[in-house]
Amino acid sequence: MEKTIKQLRKGGRQMSDEKAKEKAKKQIPLRVSASLYAEIAQWAEDDFRSINGQIEFLLTECVKYRKKKDKE
After folding, report:
1. Could you give the CA distance from residue 21 to residue 13 in angstroms, rounded to a whole number?
2. In 3-state terms, what secondary structure has residue 15?
C-alpha cells in the first residue's frame, strides 16, 4: 500500500497521504457463476461501465445503503 501511495504522489502532482490512500485500490479475487457474470456484463454495458467498474459501483452502493440503514 505504501508503494502505491508513493506512486500516486509522483509525477508533478502532490497529493496528501489521505487523498493518496483514497485513490489506492486493493485487488481481490472474485469467483462468480457464469450466469451472474453474464448478467453483470450486460448491466455494465447498459450503464457504459467496465465489468470491474460495475462491480465496484454495486459494492459501493450496497455499503452506502447499509450505512444509511444502520443510522435509522
Report:
1. 15
2. coil
